[in-house]
Amino acid sequence: MEVVVELFGIARARAGVARTTAEGECLGDVLADLAGRFPLLAESCIAGRRLRPGFTANLSGQRFVTGPETRLSKGDTVLLLPLDAGG
Amino acid sequence: MSSPIPGYHSCYLRIDLTTGAAERVALEEPFLREHLGGSGLGVALLLKEGVAAVDPLSPAAALAFVFSPLVGSPLTTSAKFAVVSKSPLTQRINDSLASSGFALAGKKTGHDAIVLTGKVPQPSILVIDDDRVHLESAAEFLGLSTGDTERSLRERLGTEFQTATIGPAGERLVCFATISHDGRHAGRGGSGAVLGAKNIKAIAVRGTHRPHWADTPALVDLARQLSEKSFGPATAKYRELGTASNLLTFNRLNVLPTRNFQQGSFATAAAISPEELSVARTRTRSSCAACTIGCEHLYELKDGNGSVRLEYENLFALGPLCGIDDPEAVLEACRRCDDLGLDTISAGGTIAFAMECVERGLLAEPWLRFGDGSALLRGLELIVTGEGIGRLLALGSRRMAHEIGHDSIAFAPQVKGLEIPGYDPRGLQTMALGFAVGTRGADHNRSGAYEVDFSEAVDRYNVGPESAHLAVETEDKAALMDSLILCKFLRGVFTDFFEESAEILRLVTGWDVTAEELRQTARRIVTAKKRFNILAGWTPAEDTLPDRMLQQALPDDARAQLSAERLSALVRAYNTARGWSSDGWIEDSL
Question: Which of the two residues, B175 and B281, has the higher pLDDT score?
Fold first, then answer.
């Protein structure tokens, strides 16, 4: 299943894109797909099928998720963001 | 006076500006161990002064500049100081922090804090040179910006002096005036007005007293490790992008306060995002003294007039909150706030509130419209001159609403009088609790509850009382950081913050302090702030949010809805978790 991925902050800076698509049935699949295509993103934000400390994911602007086995649904957008929201 | 405890001078300097008397007052070890430094020590000193019930702009009010045991140590981000007083904006406790050379030089005067009471008859500069104290005329500095005052004063006194100054806003007692040092501000709650009311335009400090450390070799080693960690991924956001990078994230999550909290997203946010600003203009980085993070990102102004620091809070308050997407206007507004010595969040929040009042026909100021950058800039100037609508704007949104009437208080964007920072509480409901119970009002620096909302621990749209302890935890952590003092941008590098803080404090002071003791200390500090507020007239009805936020969902996100009943349940759970009565009273408070 193809899902839309939106990237913010450091994740965007490392990937060099604000938006892309990725393949996967669960969050871990999507992260692994992204890591394969964006090595700099992987270096900072993704370790295998997991997010590195300091990063989180959100489904369609609603629910925060980090577990690689988190199932994705058709139409989900995966947001990759820095965990630290302090300003 | 007994020999000082490592990390401390074991005394503070108390200056009565009315009589000119300066006195060294001993600080005993148990008192320091209970309150540490920074915010914690400042609140304790204010309670000792017995000033909770006095008018913060009267001569009887006290204002404390407070250093900490870590200031002057090799620990990264430790060059910080707290300014603690009763707030003229909220009439409650106010502790604001700022950084850099003033903290280092201030502590080198040989004091752990400088407490000011009384009032001098003429505008003056207070000079503290080790333990020598004198006043000089401030006549030539009146009306000058914070930066110009600092530059001129150091030309007069010598560059080894470090200064904390007020701008024209502080001179005119604007309720949200700041105290500035080296372009940074003890920003919130109007401590600049408190200093201005004492007729002090600036404080200049210089000293030769260096504290010693309990275990210098181990402290140096630990400081080196901490610095190395501070170069890592946990601080990458601050180092590479700055806090302004929150803008697009918050916009996407519909928690970016827009047009006076009427919306949670701003259609043209990208135009003022740091990503976009970096394309069109030069961006440089800077840092406070003794900091290895370097979070400050300065953006060039197009008029060839230098550059301005841009933080998320400035950006949201002077941009989306006022409906403004013109980058030049937002950057210029940031600069004017810095120059005038105005808290950007309260300035933007109050002007945005006024813009909505105009929109609703409650104010006859047709020029003051959402989206108009020149109106924002004009509003900032009027706040300081006090002309026209400026008289009302200078009071902050709560008092302004009381003067306007027509139930405008329902949409005044404040808690306890302090304008709400850039997190819409309807979509971040642990943060909503943090705002409601905050002792200095709606505050993202004293409660980091947004971190809970940005996690799987809660459903940010439907936070229940069982999660109140998570808000308590972030508040305790902030209280400890603000009292040690360490920069909050460092918090991500700690694995076990309380344990690692205990290790730091052991090496600095030689105390056999434990993580559990520091947890208790943090709780004591939060409770001391609450105690101050109770003495100042706090009632449980203050621990809430504006009616708008409890009656209307965000129009762009129907799930972002929080009822008064649900917030009230959260507040009760918070109070219980703190060990207070369910409506927030402390048994021994009176």
Answer: B175
A2 touches chain B (CB under 8 A): no
Rounded-to-integer distance, Cα B151 and Cα B154, Å: 5
With beta carbons under 8 A apart, name residues in chain B contacting A86.
243, 444, 448, 450-451, 488-489
Instruction: Compute the half-sphere exposure of residue B22: CA atoms within 13 Å on the CB side of its CA.
Output: 15
B336's enclosing H/E stretch is: helix B327-340
Give the model's pLDDT for residue B589.
47
Least confident of B11-25, B295-309, B569-583: B295-309
Enter the DSSP assignment of B239.
I
pLDDT band at B590 (very low <50, low <70, confident <90, very high): very low
Cβ atoms of residues B307 and B300 within 8 Å: yes
In angstroms, the CA B297 to CA B283 distance is 6
pLDDT score recorded for residue B278? 87
* ipTM value: 0.97
B240 CB neighbours in chain A (<8 A) are 10, 13
C-alpha B423, offset from chain centre: 15
**Is B197 within 8 Å of B113 (Cβ atoms)?**
no
Chain-chain contact of B249 with A8 (C-beta, under 8 angstroms): yes
Contact check, Cβ <8 Å, A87/B421: yes
pLDDT value at B446 more than 60: yes
Cβ under 8 Å to A: B residues 520-579: 559
- Which residues 19-58 of B are in CB contact (within 8 Å) with A? none
Whether the pLDDT of residue A87 is over 80: the answer is no
Tell me what the pLDDT averaged over chain B comes to: 96
Contacts of residues B366-374 at CB distance under 8 Å and 24 or more positions apart, as own/partner, are B370/B259, B370/B260, B370/B322, B370/B323, B370/B324, B371/B322, B371/B323, B371/B324, B371/B325, B372/B324, B373/B324, B373/B326, B373/B328, B373/B329, B373/B330, B373/B332, B373/B333, B374/B329
Could you say which of A6, A64, A84 has the minimum Cβ distance to residue B237?
A: A84
Residue B385 has pLDDT above 60, yes or no: yes
pLDDT confidence bin for B128, thresholds 50/70/90: very high
Amino acid type, B441: G
Name the CA dihedral angle for B99, B102, B108, B113, rounded to a multiple of 10 degrees. Answer: -80
The two tokens of residue B77 are 């981000």
C-alpha to C-alpha distance for B584 and B587, rounded to whole angstroms = 10
Angle at B18 between CA B17 and CA B22, to 5 degrees: 45
Please give the Cα distance from B534 to B526 (Å, whole number): 13
Q: What is the mean pLDDT of residues B391-412?
A: 98
Question: What percentage of residues in chain B have a pLDDT greater than 70?
Answer: 99
